[in-house]
Each structure stands twice: as C-alpha cells, then as structure tokens.
Write a structure and sequence with these properties.
Radius of gyration: 19 Å
Number of strands: 20
CATH topology of the largest domain: Immunoglobulin-like
CATH architecture of the largest domain: Sandwich
Distance between the termini: 5 Å
Number of domains: 2
CATH superfamily of the largest domain: Immunoglobulins
Order of helices and strands: EHEEEEHEEEEEEEEEHEEEHHEEE
Largest sheet: 5 strands, antiparallel
Structural class: alpha+beta
Strand order of the largest sheet: 1-20-17-14-15
Number of helices: 5
Amino acid sequence: MRRMGTLRGYVIAALAVVLWWSCLPDPLEVRNIPALKPEIVVNTQIIPDESLVVFLTKTFGALEASDDSDPFELVDAIAVNDATVILDGPTSSDTLLFLGAGIYGGLTLSLNAGETYTLRVISPSMGTVRATTTVTPRVEFESLSLKRYFNGYDDTLMQVSYSINDPEDRNFYMINVQRLTLRDDLAERLLNPYVYTRVIDDAEYNGMVITDTLHATPRDYAPGDTVAVFLSNIQESYYNFIKLRLDNRVGFVEFVSEPVNYPTNVEGGRGFFNLHLPDVRVFVVE
C-alpha cells in the first residue's frame, strides 16, 4: 500500500459526500395531521486547506420520498439555494459564496482550538436559523495502514489498522473510510455514498494509545482504488448526533433523514454546525 500526495479535488469531493450523508433530512412522519412547515437542515465541514463548506437542505414529508425516488430530483427539491450564509468569528464576519445545490463556501479560515464561531443562515423562503460551536483540537493518527481483506464470502473489504495517541482530556473521534471516485453520478453518490464511519468515545482509553483494526465496506475493493481515511476529533454533542444516525439507519428513507428526536445545535432548524479539522490520509490500493 503506498500513500499518495495531496489530492485536493478528491478530498473535497469525499468530504462533500460525507457531509451530504450527514445533512440530508428524514421525511417527517405524517399521521392524519396537517403538514408541518419545512425547516432548514444545516451541516458544515472544514476541508484540509481550512476552507469552510456549508450544506443547506430542508425537511420534507414522509410521502415525498421513497426508495424509488430519483436522487437528482430529490437533491433539487430539498436544497436551499436562496440563503445568505454568514460566519461570525472572533475577529470578523464573512459571507459565504453560493456554489450551487445547497452548497455554500469559498471562505478560508485560520482556525485555532477553543475559538467560538456563530453561523447565521437567512433564507427568504425558509426563514432564519443560527448555530454556535467551538473549534476542537486537531488529533492525528499515530500510525495507519491499509490492505484488502477477504472475508470468505466473496467480499473484499478494506482492512484499516490504526493507532491514536489519545490526549488526557476527554475526546470523541470520528473515523471515515471512503473509496474515492470521479464517476459522474454525483447526486446518487451524495444520497448513497460508500462511506464507512466509526465513532469512538475515549472513556476507556483516556490518555492512552488507542489501537484497533476495522473492516470497511463496500465489499468490492480492487487494486488501483483510491481510498481516503479521515480522523476527526469532534465534540461530544456531535458524537451523539452521528452515533444515533449510525444506530438507526436502515434503508433509503432512513438514510435521507433528520428526525425530530436527533440532537441539534441549530436554533430554529435541524442538523449540526461543527468545526473540526480532520487528519486526512489518501492511499492507492495494491
């Protein structure tokens, strides 16, 4: 397994897929009651060059989507494209650029652990929401290796062996493993991305070296595939949010989800505003 240099385009696309996975809203359950007003769903990410990307979608009714829904039409229907997105930081306020399909960005930040930021979203069609978060410290892999793993059932998974030198304070981690591709079916990839996610609570390992091996899907890794592995030190509230999503996802309807019982730090909306700086490693499968 050989590690590649910086592949900025690949990594940005991968982070976009991971984040669409996080922010697509659940259909709101309808049981003979008037339809609820749609709400803005927020999700954010800092890509490795410290550019901020914000994804805005809206909740929708249970009868508006199914496993047969066309992903292009669904993305078009739930993206919030008329918003003004403002980031208020310790020393300045900046307006993000609209990049299309509910995506806002173009803002490069110089982040420091412990800094607090507020995100404001103003949409003529959807209303106003806001959320505040604090930048979490960056934590890097102590060691990381990848190889293909045959599980005996005609499946080839990606075996990821890693170690993390865990700081002594309480930490929560998210590891994402994704095969990178330049295929054209972007909308379908956004709705059904091949992203393996694991979250870790360091309660049992506080201040120790965390060492483990995971076997990541999809089940058809082949020589020449490009694979990215992301390690993010995240807030406990975001850990709870992601863990609940992982525990509850079953099919398509659950995948495009944001139910009312999920935790959120968005005032007046749903989703999550978080700022964490991932350690990103990119490999080519041998």
